[in-house]
Amino acid sequence: AVMDEMFQYFQTMSLPAMVRISLACCLNMCGAVHCSDIGIVGIHRKPPIVEHDRLDNICEVPLAIAACPTGAIKPAKIEVEGKKVNTVAVNASRCMYCG
Questions:
Q1: pLDDT tens digits for 33-81?
Q2: Per-domain residue ranges for the chain?
Q3: Angle CA(5)–CA(8)–CA(11) in degrees, nearest 5?
Q4: What b/e readout covers 3-33, taking b as 16+ CB neighbours within 10 angstroms?
Q5: Where does 52-90 sit in CATH, by number?
């Protein structure tokens, strides 16, 4: 939605100077929102839902655990469709909803 509104300005270069737009999904500001001209910070309101059957194939579990600033993500092994898979468990009481 943001880029849809700004596209004409970037396409025609009608802004007076270069503009940096950043989006972040939480207050950790990994998207460099604090040093951009236009910064948009979203706020999640619920802990993430873990898709256990897909997580081991699309995500590096140790990196997901290390990325959590409050330690709310822990490693777990569960059985999905008769097969043990590596996944994570989210402690909702420790989660700061950073996405």
A1: 778 888 888 877 888 888 988 888 888 888 889 988 899 999 999 998 8
A2: 2-41, 52-90
A3: 135
A4: eeeeeeeeeeeeeeeeeeebebebeeeebeb
A5: 3.30.70.20
Per-residue tokens: 16: 């007076």
Q: Where do we find the tokens 């873990």?
A: 50
Token readout for 83 is 């097969």
CA atoms of 61 and 66, how far apart (whole Å): 9
3-state secondary structure the chain: CHHHHHHHHHHHCCCCCCCCEEEECCCCCCCCHHHCCEEEECCCCCCCCCCHHHHHHHCCHHHHHHHCCCCCEEEEEEEECCEEEEEEEECCCCCCCCC
Single-letter amino acid, residue 29: M
User: CA-to-CA distance for 74 and 69, rounded, in angstroms?
Assistant: 12
Q: Tell me the pTM.
A: 0.60
